[in-house]
Amino acid sequence: MIVKRYNVKKGSEYRNRISLVDKNSIPISPYTVIFLNKWIPQESASKKRKAEELKFILRELEKIRPDNPNETFGIDLIDRALRGEFLTKSECRQLADACRYKVKKVANNVVPIESLSSPALRNAIHSAKISNETVRNETKDGRIRTAVSFIEFLFEELHGQYRTPDHVKLNYLTTKQELELAIKDKIKKIENPSFEESKIPAPIYLHLLEIIQLDSEKNPFKQSKHRNSLIVQLILETGERRGAISKLKISDCKFEGTGDQIRITKTPDDPTDRRINKPAQKTKPHSAYVDPEIMKSLDEYVKNERSKYEKAELHEFVFIAEHDSKGTAGEPLNVKGVNEIFKTLSKALDFHINPHLGRHKWNEVFSDLTKDMSDEEADKLRRYAMGWSKTSEMVDVYNKFKHSVEIREIQRSRQKEIVSAGIKDE
Length: 426
Fold this sequence. Notes:
Elements: E1 2-10, E2 13-21, H1 30-39, H2 44-61, H3 77-82, H4 89-98, H5 118-131, H6 137-158, H7 166-181, H8 184-191, H9 202-211, H10 225-238, H11 242-246, E3 253-254, E4 261-264, E5 286-289, H12 292-305, H13 335-349, H14 355-369, H15 375-386, H16 397-421
Antiparallel strand pairs: 1-2, 3-4, 4-5
């Protein structure tokens, strides 16, 4: 089972699609195709993650012995749904338990299932799980949520349009409830997030600010220094996601006038984006303040470096691939390229850092800068700055303008930290 991406041309536009296919690139089921491309949100990054999670779920179900002794080894969830049976409580618990472990490649000394007795099979599975490392709670819960979502889809697709027999509805609700119990504690934690686990220690953070400076002797990049420095600074400066920075267009940058803003857009089906792995922006469209000096540097990059690449003339995305090993120089930089930048920085810092940690660090710095405000005021500012949806208790359109001005002042104050970190003693 393989996750496969492809583009489908519809009129003059290209639509990103994703499927679970076999070794011959044939979709394993029309239901998985519909689920991945119609049922779940259309952001590309979300679809890729959901596809990997669904593949994990279906493969793990194949390893579970059904409670019904008359059934063959392994569970076909789609077949179960067609019959209105879904999963038993015991099978749900086995699946939830499997979601706790990392995916491991099959070793050379694997014993075929057919040659194992039931006790031996149980012992082999148990030993394998003990030896595997567990994944983070977020990963485990994401897998279970995808299982729940797929089961909801199958129920609606196969039974929701008709008068559903009571026993089918009961089987469905029991399965859904049992899986949701496995993530109940995690749902509570999401309501009160903490950034303590992801906090970048102050010495590491200051060292990061130093080595991304173009004139730093400790800058770890031999090529693309200007581009990489700008990407990191924008993530640290604005707290935006890597997808938002990868989607940034020249027209989204306010170089004139105050020259201190970028516009964050949400366009999941952008017809101008030909990337197969399209970056996604999850939050609402909004504007983010950027220090004018960084904007000036960004403008120079566009005019003096980006302009050297012919393919860059075919699109408006700011950041481009600068290596031509696969003939991609000048094409829009993908999210994988952003990840590689942070991998290089991680080695230089001897500390694991990624774009999401940068986003969390922004929240920590923001909290320090708003410590004299009330929780309500700080929360309103944070939600607007990060592009989060407002609740019914949030400020109205009039106050949105006021908050925009306040955020500029707060982030201008924060910028002093970044600038001072790049100044060296003579």
